[in-house]
Prior knowledge:
Strand content of chain A: 15-25%
Number of domains of chain A: 2
Distance between the termini of chain A: 46 Å
Number of strands of chain A: 11
Order of helices and strands of chain A: EHEHEHEHEHEEEHEHHEE
CATH architecture of the largest domain in chain A: 3-Layer(aba) Sandwich
CATH superfamily of the largest domain in chain A: Response regulator
Strand order of the largest sheet of chain A: 2-1-3-4-5
Largest sheet of chain A: 5 strands, parallel
Structural class of chain A: alpha/beta
Number of helices of chain A: 8
Helix content of chain A: 25-40%
CATH class of the largest domain in chain A: Alpha Beta
Oligomer: homodimer
Amino acid sequence: MKSSKILLVDDDEDILDLLEYNLTKEGYEVKTALNGEKAIEVANEFLPELIIMDVMMPEMDGIEACGEIRKNKLLANTIIAFLTARSEDYSQIAGFDAGADDYITKPIKPKVLFSKIKGLLRRGTVEDQLIEETATMRIDREKYIVVQRDTEISLPKKEFELLALLMSKPDNVFTREKIFASVWGDDIVVGDRTIDVHIRKLREKIGDDYIKTVKGVGYKFVDVED
Amino acid sequence: MKSSKILLVDDDEDILDLLEYNLTKEGYEVKTALNGEKAIEVANEFLPELIIMDVMMPEMDGIEACGEIRKNKLLANTIIAFLTARSEDYSQIAGFDAGADDYITKPIKPKVLFSKIKGLLRRGTVEDQLIEETATMRIDREKYIVVQRDTEISLPKKEFELLALLMSKPDNVFTREKIFASVWGDDIVVGDRTIDVHIRKLREKIGDDYIKTVKGVGYKFVDVED
DNA sequence: ATGGTGGCTTAACATTGAGTTAATATTAAA
DNA sequence: TTTAATATTAACTCAATGTTAAGCCACCAT
C-alpha cells in the first residue's frame, strides 16, 4: 500500500517540525507550508490526500486557503482538517462552509492527532464531499433536494443517492457493481432489476434525457443544455 | 440587504481614517473610537456586527475592553477581532481568552483585511440564522415561547429546543443522530420513538405542515406561507 | 409529607410508503 | 435475426415512522 501524502500548514515552524518528524516516522509522506498561499502552491503539485491547516495564519488564513484549494478539481477528494484554538469556535461554522472536513483542536496531543489522521484517511474516497452540480441541475444534500432549473424536486433516499452518485462524475459511466457498492453497500444483496426501477423513477421525475444507458456497461449522467 | 456595522478602535487616528474611508467605500457602516472606554460606549449604542480593535492602547487596552463588551448581552453575537503587531506572540494574547474571535496582524494590507472582514461577517450571517425566525413563525428564547402569526404558543423544553433546532436552518434536513446530539446530548440514550413523539406533539401544536419527514434521513422545518 | 401537575419516556400497536420483486415487453448489439 | 440486456408496470414486503396511552419522576403548592 502506497503511503499517504499529508500537507501540514502552520505559521509556527516549531509545530511544523514536530508534526513532520513524527508523521514521517509513522510512514506518511509529508510536506509543509508556512502560509496559505504557499499551501495552495504545494497542494496543487503535491496532491496530498490530507491537509492539516491552521485556521489562523498571517497573509492568508486557513479558511481562505481552503476555499482556493477546493477550486482545484484534482483536490476534490482531499480531506482538509483545520487546527483551531478553541473547540467551540465560530470559525467551525465558517470552515465547514469553506469545505473543511474536520477539526483538530489545539493544543495538539500527538496520540489523538495520529488516531484522528488514521480515521480521516480511512474514510478514503469521501465522495459525499463532492459538489454535485451541472449547468441545469444541482444536488443539495443539506436540504435533501434536487434543484433543476429553479424547480425543487424531492427524492426518496435511494433515488437521491443514486442520482448524486451519477452526478458526481457527469458523463462517466458507472457500472452496476459500482452503483451497488456505493448506494447499497457491499454486503446488501438485491435483485438485478432493482437499479433499473430506480433509474426509471428518476427519469420519471427529472426527465428521460439526463440518464443514459450504456448497454452491457452501466449508466451515466449527461447534462441537458437544450 | 442592510449594510453591516463595523466599529474600529485604535489609538492611531491615521489608521482609523484610512480604514474608515476604505470600509465606508466598500459599503459598510463604520464608527470609530480612539480608546477602550470610548469603544465600550460606542459599542453599546451602535451595536456593531464586527469590532476591530487594537490590542495595545493607552487608558484601557483591547483585552480589557473586550471583556467589558462581552458583558453586554446585546453584543453577544458581535465578532471581535484584535489587531496585533506581527512580532507579538499572539498565543500569549489568546491565552487571556478575553473573548476575541480573530486576529488581524499589522501592518494591515487592505486587500487581506477586506477579505478577512467578509469572512468574519459571513460567520455572522451564519450566526444570524440562529435567530430562528421565518415568515410565519418566530422563536423567542427570552420568553421561551413560539409566536405563530401573532399567536403565542408556549412549549416545554424539549419540544422548544427541537423546534428551535429545526428552525435554525429552515428546509435543511436534520438526521435523528444530529437531533439527539443537539437536543439530548451525545451521552444521553433514549429510545427510538422518543423523537417521533416530540415531533408529534409539535405538529399537534403548530400544525402538521411545518415539519416534514424525510424517510430514512430525518426531519426538516418548512415554512407554511399558505 | 402529601397530592397534584405536567414534562418526558416507553411500549404496544397502526400505518405508511420506500424499496423490492416478479412478470412481461422492448431494445440494441452481434 | 437472435438474444441477452434493459425497460416497464404493478403488486408486494417490510422497515421506518406515526399514534396513543400509560407510567415514571421531578417539581410545586398545600
